[in-house]
Amino acid sequence: MSDIKVEVRDLKKSFGSVQALKGASLTVKAGEITAIVGDNGAGKSTLVKCLTGLYTPDSGEILIDGEPVAFSSPKGSREAGIETVYQDLALCDQLSVWQNLYLDRELTAGIGPFRLLRRAAMRDKAKELMSELAVNVPPVTRSVKRLSGGQRQAVAIARGVMWAKGMIILDEPTAALGLNETAQVEALIRRVVDTGQTVLVVSHNFEQVKRLTDQVWVMRGGTVVGGTRTAEVTNEQLVGMVTGAIPTVELAGTTKRKR
Amino acid sequence: MTTTEPMSALGVSRSERVREALRRFGTEDAWTKLTAPVALVLLILVFSILKPRFISWPSITSMLADSTIPIVLALGATFAVTLAGIDLSLAATVALGSVTMALAYQAGWPLVLCCLVALATGLAVGALNGTFIGWVRIPDFIVSLGALSLVMGAGLILSQGKPVLIQEQALTAISTTQFGGIRLNFLIAIGIAIILHVVLFHTRFGTHVLAVGDNPEAATAMGLKVSRIKLAGYMICGLMGGVGAVMLTSYIGSSQPATNTDYLLKAIAAVVLGGVSLFGGRATIYGPVLGAILLTFLQSGLTLLGVSAFYSPLVIGIVVIAAATLMRGRK
């Protein structure tokens, strides 16, 4: 059990009359890159938001390192060492790069309630970190609004990487990126895993899933319809699983979740 | 993550830094920051050419003293506007604060306590606004419009519409004592501005106010307690209304139960002139301060030129719309 980082059991979540998750289950192995694929509206983002505490599931269980957890806010998952890079990046446009990197985790100095920001320290560290992580380094004092799409993505990912203690979740990390930037982000994700972190990626890009991940789970209509080792599946099969053209249960039979 | 690999590091070269500086100069960002100071300098130049008496020291001292209440209220409004909101009840809070202060005074409370009552009144109105905006999630405009009427009514009921004389040496001293030719009330306003500058730009809370005003969804995703931050922001705004109440009572020497909407108008106008984004998330403190001084100077200058006082709301209205037009579409 110790090599299972996250286990999701029969997760359900409705918004009004819309059932976004109808009992989704999956596992994420520690130290691996796991992908969730699925069409629009399959429930991927809802599942991710339940994992990070942004949504509270209606029923079902989430286990992290074997322990059941119930996060009531994103703070909870963060304290469990899980960082999330959201699809919309969750950046404050008018704040600078360094302010975004340190949002809610600002460095301060002082006594008791009279604590002042260590702006210079945060700026310097942010600069160091950004130049380590990205080729296309934006000036850290520039407001996020003035960055290119790739740079914004780099800032959001850098924030996840700098704070993750065990796991990082990326929701469509390369959706807005060109080929070069995508390659950089993928290299970065590999490096993150090399340092012993667990990565969960939501992706639309099957080639990327094939290139990058160890395990893939397929979602359709609010449930996880199957999962397999990425190496054992072809691109075409993945497409078939997502669209429902291939009955996934057979295909995933060998490695399907053990229950 | 401290591995350094070929994919990393393309340091910021000097030429890039120069380009960055040039690029910044041309942006609206620079323009909005420069609007208030440049307009203030122009206004002083024009009025002193038309009426040299305008820049005499006594005239400047008294104009700065007059700008005290607009400055304090503009500082409060800055917090509401930075949160992408607005507080229409600000001027009514000033009236109610002065009424509760007078009630405490009539009850024989010590003067310091009376002032604290005014401040507490402001905090309470701010808490009311903040609670309904942050938790009940009613739009700020509606909440503070309701609060405007509610607070105004409370002030009238409590005072029966009658002003109460508060003629205490210590209180009037706030508006009359001078230090180096500058009145104490203005110095207090500047002191508060400095404190609020530190709060907004050098504390975690201030950063969170900017973040919530900029993008509440992102702020939530990053674990900020949006409702709580909004509450605190509106309480600061209300508190400034309370400070305004003390200043006004000190200046007039009696409580003022009637709401002077001119104060609200000027506070919002000063915030707009100061380059604070009406969409939230971007602010300065010196901007609204300069904006408030600018509007006061404008009003005094017009009076000095013999223009009827009836024209001053008209002129302020034009200035505000012009400033807002100049800064439109910034986000």
Which characteristics define this entry?
heterodimer, A: 259 residues, alpha/beta, globular, B: mainly alpha, ABC transporter involved in vitamin B12 uptake, BtuC, 2 strands, disordered N terminus
Topology (SSEs and partners):
The complex is a heterodimer of chains A (259) and B (331).
Chain A: E1 4-15, E2 18-29, E3 33-38, H1 44-52, E4 59-64, E5 67-69, H2 74-79, E6 82-85, H3 97-101, E7 108-111, E8 114-117, H4 119-133, H5 149-163, E9 167-171, H6 179-194, E10 198-202, H7 206-212, E11 215-220, E12 223-229, H8 235-243, H9 248-252
Parallel strand pairs in A: 3-10, 3-11, 6-9, 9-10
Antiparallel strand pairs in A: 1-2, 1-4, 4-5, 7-8, 11-12
Chain B: H1 14-26, H2 28-50, H3 57-66, H4 68-82, H5 90-106, H6 111-134, H7 140-159, H8 169-176, E1 178-179, E2 182-183, H9 184-202, H10 204-214, H11 216-221, H12 226-252, H13 261-273, H14 286-304, H15 311-326
Antiparallel strand pairs in B: 1-2
Helix pairs in contact in B: 2-14, 4-9, 4-12, 4-13, 4-14, 5-6, 5-7, 5-12, 6-7, 6-12, 8-12, 9-10, 10-12, 13-14, 13-15
